[in-house]
Design a protein that fits this description.
The protein is 74% helix and 0% strand. The chain is mainly α. The chain crosses the membrane at residues 12-31, 51-72.
Length: 135
């Protein structure tokens, strides 16, 4: 049985981490831009887009949005590390089971220790390649 790097629940978890960060960044930049626009519209006496007429609330909203971005970024860093460790564990299990299930006569005449050494850094390469989608 071949294991995937992330399967089932873990794959949905990784997708949720990416989705949360994407939605948060998109919404925060949109709201921040609208709040800045409304601050200047309010100063010029024009109608505001968000419907907030208080200048202090608009300034507070504009300064609170970067704090929300940092909060989500900190939470998502932990969640991404959790997903990365799950991927690393699954890759190690898959590669190690491939090495251990290999018959001594198979391959190019390598010794067992050489075969294990070939797979030693492969899981790190696989995980870092997958994490490039997140970073």
């Amino acid at each position: 049985m071949r294991r995937k790097m992330l399967s089932g629940r873990d794959a949905w978890f990784f997708r949720a981490v990416i989705l949360i960060e994407t939605v948060t960044y998109t919404a925060s930049f949109l709201l921040s831009g609208l709040a800045k626009k409304d601050i200047f519209n309010r100063l010029e006496g024009k109608e505001t887009t968000l419907g907030i007429s208080s200048l202090s609330v608009l300034v507070l909203l504009n300064t609170a949005i970067p704090l929300a971005i940092n909060l989500v970024k900190q939470i998502n860093a932990g969640l991404a590390a959790k997903a990365e460790s799950r991927m690393r564990k699954n890759a190690k299990l898959e590669l190690l089971s491939g090495v251990l299930n290999r018959r001594p006569g198979d391959g190019e005449g390598r010794k067992y220790g050489e075969t294990v050494s070939l797979y030693r850094n492969e899981c790190e390469d696989l995980v870092s390649c997958r994490m490039e989608y997140y970073r």
